[in-house]
Amino acid sequence: MSERRILNTWKEIANYLGRGVRTVQRWEAQLGLPVHRPAGKDHSAVLAFSSELDQWLDSRPLRHATDGSAQPANSEALQLQTLLARTEVVLQRLEALVARADESHRKLAQNLEVLAENEAVRRELRAVRSRRVEAGAA
Question: How many CB atoms lie within 10 A of CB 46?
């Protein structure tokens, strides 16, 4: 087992992995590179353990030399699951909106029927009044 080193900066982590600082920061954000923040804040100082980084690298999918394709990464599956969950939430919200729109349409149709009936009653009342006026004038 190799000696466990503590890497205290992004630069030390990047040098250990043989990559640039931005690359290892992206790996942490997108692929779950095991980096610790003692202060517990998103933009605080970082540290990493070489043994955890080695273990993380060993768990990454490898490209096959024959076909050049990569095995699906856990992060890709996680991203797809997250996207699916978000899609389901959006679908539920859309279904709720459609249900509300249907209910509003039904209520509007009922109100229009009531208005039409009220208008017919108003016309009938006007006709009755005008007949009374004509009858009284006669």
Answer: 19
